[in-house]
Design goal:
heterodimer; A: 271 residues; alpha/beta; Metallo-beta-lactamase, Chain A; eight-stranded mixed β-sheet; seven-stranded mixed β-sheet; 8 helices; 15 strands; globular; B: 356 residues; alpha+beta; six-stranded mixed β-sheet; 14 helices; 6 strands; 63% helix; RibonucZ/Hydroxyglut_hydro (chain A); Metallo-beta-lactamase domain-containing protein (chain A); Metallo-B-lactamas (chain A); Competence_DNA_uptake (chain A); ComEC/Rec2-related protein domain-containing protein (chain B)
């Protein structure tokens, strides 16, 4: 009698798990999520079972975001990009590496000596240093590395990795903490046409976004990944040029996680 | 000379005096501004916040950076300056992992949960099975506190009670009743050690052991007497528990269960058993616990007993499947993974209710 009861419970749970798995399984769209991690960056791109996580934010809040947007059985992240080794970009990655299988870990090659960065360093089995010009393809997703061209020693934001994510005709630029000089240089040689999405550099700092860049990229939406801070992020100047160019501004401190979904031709915003 | 009653009274008074004396005698004395170097083993799981972790060593509260991560059982060396019960400007000199099999078993099982399930599910399972609360995401922890469900995840006596009753029915298959005592003791205390020796766990383990003992000796165990003996015994051994909120909550909750659970259950006869058990238990516990929570935290959720009733039934299956899945996963990761997926529908339900 008791055995039957256990068997019955087991079957119910198995059925429920399968139904949840079916119900929560990914669609055929690209989901680009600016995770609400407070003052910091964590941008998740997910397409079917393929994920790219760009930066991990300053704490373990990124785990909530991954749990929310990945199916529960998927504990593998195909690619992690650390734009540059600042705590508000890498610290959350320590928790990510402890819980997810990360296939590829890209950095700009610079390092810092803080104790928590060393913990991260020990977690990462093999990492690859990349520069401008690297292309990664996975099905319909393409990731082009646009910066850094050269590494400036003893600087951090100057060396931030900048990537262009393409999915069909949908284009998003992920800028990390890119500085104005790099942005202006990118704008000068811009050959990718208009983009749909820009992650506004450096949490909306005035030491980030430039008008030249907006003129060249003409993004439709500007995402500012920002939380409570003492730096005055996002700067009034940045907000002003964004609205001057009629760009829809979305901030993680106001909207929480910001999810942009694209089928490869058009896109929708959820927040 | 003395009547029996008077003897009892005298014994009780002298025990109370002894506890108070021990409390002050064992209080460590630090001077503000004193520089200290503490070498100690961590006997309570450190709490991890967004940007720091906090632990208690020799009665001092210590905040350290999040990394390197300190776990229950580790031996640490910390330096800092004493200021009002806290060690400020604390610096971690070294942390040595405990190589004891019990602690590493605990670590390995928790890590396995984390590698299979997403958050907060992994932490929830780790909390329910092993009483580990250190890694619960801050947001989820807050919503659990708001809804009055946090007790399920922290090391609570409920876990020990489940282990004890599970052991009972398990042992009954192999052994005659009179030979239960040793294996039951071993099981309960092994679990208590695994779960971390927090006051509620120790309380439940002591009471569970006393109940087993009374049964073995053929005595009728008055629940009240066991409760009182456990409290006095624990305070004699560790007077510092006098200042531990968890200690009071645990005893008050158990006391109110003894008093109110049965009458409430009888009055709820109209409600289906499935729902009634959890509702009666949490209503009964709340009678004692709610005022304490309200005075200390200034918050109390009137819906808490109903939310508890909605989720408490998931706890035993999560505990059993989680424990089996965790152990199997150490040997056969793939099979352990499949077993843990069976827990997901239950934790999904728990998380959904917890976030209401």
């Amino acid at each position: 009698m008791k055995t039957w009861k256990y068997l019955f419970g087991f079957l119910i749970l198995a059925t429920a798990a399968i139904w949840l798995a079916v119900f929560l399984s990914p669609d055929k769209n690209l989901h680009l999520v600016a995770c609400d991690v407070g003052e910091g960056d964590a941008i998740l791109a997910t397409y079917k079972n393929f994920q790219i996580l760009t930066d991990g934010g300053p704490n373990n809040k990124v785990l909530d975001c991954l749990a929310e947007y990945l199916p529960f059985w998927d504990k593998e992240i195909e690619l992690v990009v650390l734009t540059h080794p600042d705590a508000d970009h890498y610290r959350g990655l320590i928790e990510v590496l402890g819980r997810y299988r990360v296939d590829k870990f890209l950095t700009n090659g610079t390092e810092v000596s803080t104790s928590d960065y060393q913990v991260l360093r020990n977690w990462v089995g093999s990492k690859e240093n990349i520069k401008e010009g690297v292309k990664i393809r996975a099905g319909k997703i393409r990731l082009d590395t646009l910066a850094p061209k050269i590494i400036t020693p003893d600087k951090t934001n100057e060396n931030s990795i900048v990537t262009l994510l393409t999915f069909g005709s949908f284009k998003a630029v992920l800028t990390g903490d890119m500085v104005p000089a790099v942005g202006d240089a990118l704008a000068q040689n811009w050959s990718f046409g208009h983009v749909n999405y820009i992650k506004v550099p450096h949490h909306g700092s005035k030491n980030g976004l430039t008008e030249n860049l907006l003129k060249a990229l003409r993004p439709a939406v500007g995402i500012i990944s920002v939380g409570k801070n003492n730096y005055g992020h996002p700067a009034q100047e940045t907000l002003k040029i964004l609205s001057d160019y009629d760009i829809k501004i979305l901030r993680t401190d106001e909207a929480g996680d910001i999810e942009v979904v694209s089928d490869g031709s058009s896109f929708w915003i959820f927040h | 000379m003395f009547t029996k009653k008077l003897k009892k009274k005298l014994l009780f008074i002298s025990l109370v005096v002894l506890i108070i004396f021990r409390f002050f005698a064992t209080q460590p004395h630090y001077l503000d501004g004193q520089n200290l170097r503490i070498t100690a083993r961590v006997f309570q799981e450190p709490i991890r916040y967004s940007f720091k972790q906090s632990l208690n060593l020799l009665g001092l509260k210590i905040y350290l950076p999040l990394y390197p991560e300190i776990s229950y059982g580790d031996r640490v060396i910390v330096e800092g300056e004493v200021k009002g019960g806290e060690l400020i400007n604390a610096k971690l000199i070294s942390v040595t992992e405990n190589k004891n099999w019990l602690y590493s078993l605990r670590e390995k099982i928790i890590n396995f949960y984390r590698s299979v399930l997403p958050e907060p599910h992994a932490s929830l399972v780790a909390g329910i099975v092993l009483g580990s609360k250190s890694q619960i995401p801050a947001d989820f922890w807050q919503s659990l506190k708001n809804s009055g469900l946090a007790h399920v995840v922290v090391a609570s006596g409920m876990n020990v009670t489940f282990v004890a009753s599970f052991l009972m029915s398990f042992l009954a298959v192999f052994l005659p009743r009179r030979r239960f005592l040793l294996p039951a003791f071993a099981g309960i205390w092994l679990y208590a050690l695994l779960a971390g020796l927090d006051a509620p766990i120790v309380r439940a383990a002591v009471m569970g052991s006393l109940a087993f003992l009374a049964q073995r000796l053929g005595k009728v165990a008055a629940a009240w007497r066991i409760l009182l003996i456990s409290a006095v015994g624990m305070l004699l051994v560790k007077p510092l528990w006098l200042t531990d909120l968890g200690f009071y909550l645990s005893f008050v909750a158990t006391g109110s269960l003894i008093l109110f659970e049965k009458p409430i259950r009888e009055r709820l006869a109209a409600i289906p058993t499935f729902f009634r058990e959890g509702l009666a238990t949490s209503l009964a516990a709340q009678i004692g616990v709610a005022p304490i929570l309200f005075v200390t935290f200034g918050q109390f959720n009137i819906w808490s007993p109903f939310l508890n009733a909605l989720v408490l039934w998931t706890v035993p299956p999560v505990m059993i499947i989680g424990a089996i899945g965790g152990l199997v996963g150490l040997v056969l990761p793939q099979l352990g993974e499949l077993l843990l997926y069976l827990v997901y529908p239950l934790t999904w339900w728990f998380v959904t209710i917890g976030r209401l």
